[in-house]
Amino acid sequence: MAISRRDFLKVIGFTGVTSAVATIGGVLIGRGEDILKEIKPASKVRWAMAIDTRQFKTDEDFQKVIEACHKAHNVPNIPDPIRQVKWIWVDTFEKAFPTIEHEYISEEIKKRKFLLLCNHCDNPPCVRVCPVKATFRRPDGVVVQDMHRCIGCKFCMAACPYGSRNYNFYPPREFLSQVNPEYPTRTTGVVEKCILCYERLDEGKQPYCVEASEGKMFFGNLNDPNSPVRKAISENIVIVRKPELTTKPMVFYII
Amino acid sequence: MFEYALKGKPRYWIWLGFLATLILIAFYFWNLEHHIGAGRLLGLHRDLTWGLHIGQLAFFVGAAAGAVMIVLPYYFHNYKEFSKITVLAEFFAVGMVLVAMLSVFVVMGQPPRVFFVLLHPTPNSIIFYDLIVLSGYLILNLICGWTVLHAEYKGVKYPAWLKPIIYLAILWGPSIHIVTAFLLQGLPGRDYWLTAIMAPRFLATAFSAGPALLIVLALLAKKLTGFDVGQKAIDTIAKIITYAFIINLLFFGFEVFTAFYSGIEHHKAPILYLFFGYEGHTEYVGLMWLSMILALIAVVLLVIPPLRRNETALVLACLAVIASVWIEKGFALMIGGFTPNPFHTVTPYIPTFPEFMIAIGTWAVGFTIVTILWKIAISVYQSKEKGVFIKS
Amino acid sequence: MYNSDKVIVGIIIFILFFAMPFWLNFGKAKALPKPELPSDTKECVESREYMRAFHMKMLLDWRDKKVREGQVYYINSQGKFFKMSLQNTCMKCHKSMEKFCDRCHTTISAHPDCWRCHIAPEEVKKWQ
């Protein structure tokens, strides 16, 4: 897709503007790339998240987090419960961990609510099945959904064992009461999901949900022994969703 | 040769007009879906994103692969009885593959972007391979059928270069079914699909329902045009259907054994949901047992030789096979795969009227192609039988 | 060739029919579109000629760099940094889709689908 110098010279020739030739020297996107490499080294980063489910007590705690994400990403509020779009949502232990729930676990855990979102698996089935690389795993582990590329085949939704993917069954703009003008919406017929705010990560910020949780969620580089998420995981008892499928989820739940 | 498709009795044009109307209705709904959103028109939802249409992919890919059962004995074993039905089987496969491909196409939420599959080829995705094998099979069958028929039309033997292509087409046939089964059987967490017997079972259903549909169409053609593919050919195909269908039922039994003897709840759940109901949801219990009863009727009619040789009983048996396999594979397979959902609850799926009309529209495209190609083929054979001199 | 008279007439009718837009618009000159340029700034990301010729390629390139390659900034020929963003960089100066993008696109019947998802500046008002 990059524009070659020759292409550009051709057009300049056609338009007959000679003064522009002076600027051609720098019109090389490659040069920008070199500089960017120095700014953002592709080091061994593996983003992960730990959710301290003990600290999430009231509905307000959850709402703050969900709203921060949904407002920032223009996630529509669709009333039809079985065709909703949700990037991060709340469910019970029984539904979040159907393979390990048990009749006689503590009442407190049974009543506890869990924040659910894309697990950004290390071994993501959705990425494996996507026929156009619309969903792909970045070197830092974020499983991104490229809504420009998605053809809406819904294969990834069949492959995801966590129900974390959303298909736009309705034109999303009809269900937005307000928009964040800095972020796009989506269109009907594409799949979307949590993207771990990769744009913010690239700018050195934390995901919206982690920021809004006020210390109830830990985020960081799993490969760094001093990162908050690594500490949270090593100091507490954590579980992940459906570990038996070995998709290696990167969202840990502190019990 | 193509001129035969342009001349026909009024009933030929009325039939084609009827199919065209169905296609237009389907096109209307499909177009509407992309304007108002799938949620307002189709029964699909978060927990069941592949419904009726991918079911049609599974069923019609089988129908297409079923043609191999006719082409293989004719070319590999020189089974002369199939000489008349072979070209028909190849043309039938062309139409059925087209239905299968269209069934995938109508599922796409962004149809203009479909060519991205070729623009960004992704060898780790099964859809990529499915596209290759389906379009490959379509082209191979069209080339083989058309060239053989054209040679017949000119009264010569087909050219030698066709032989390797015919062999390739025969070997290619099962691949479309295996790859389509791989779409489903490699997904973690979808326990109804996550079984190695999925591909063999797909083949068994293909080799029973495909030839069954072919027999029904061939007998229909006999009634309408008087073109007879030969009693012996029909008998042999009926035997093939019998064995393949019984193997299919056995495979289903293996499936049930594994799920229930292992006692693993998640393997049992989809089968329980379909046949007995799960967590109070019993939407498809009746339909599944209907499929089972139809299968039983088909087995009885097929296994007893005098009944199998009786044309009426055979047609009934074939219809029972088609209906049973369609319910089980063209419909319930998707529901079983997606239910219970990842949260182990049941969200029922009821296909809507527009959804059915879109599916019927895809069938209509396939049957339009089959009608036209069969019209040509039968006209060629009949003009030869009558000894009409053909100007070349 | 059989039926050559019919075939040739058929081909001529076919060509005439498919050249219809040309016949319908023959001799009618349309005014050149005048996209409204921002008044408060003179400089775009690259030179005017470059943008005219390559804005679409550049946007596609930005899109892939940002979404798929995790890059944030574009460095132009002068060494200046720009955040790669249609909504937050381009449309901060070009404040209107209708008066800037659409003017040329409508004239030449180009229909890029950017705005089906990206929010055009004038559309933000609809929600406020």
Based on the coordinates given, report the CATH architecture of chain B: Up-down Bundle
Total count of domains of chain B: 1
The backbone outline of chain A, from C-alpha atoms, is: globular
CATH C-level of chain B: Mainly Alpha
How many domains, in number, for the residues of chain A?
2
Rounded to the nearest angstrom, the distance between the terminal CA atoms of chain A is 48 Å
Helix content of chain A: 25-40%
SS class of chain B: mainly alpha
Specify which chain pair forms the largest interface: A-B, 47 and 46 residues
Question: Mean pLDDT score of chain B, rounded?
Answer: 92
State the CATH topology of the largest domain in chain A: Alpha-Beta Plaits
- Total DSSP helices of chain B: 15
Query: What is the architecture of the largest domain in chain A at the second tier of CATH?
Result: 2-Layer Sandwich
The top level CATH class name of the largest domain in chain A: Alpha Beta
Task: Write a concise synopsis of the structure shown.
The complex is a heterotrimer of chains A (255), B (392) and C (128). Chain B is mainly alpha-helical and 392 residues long.
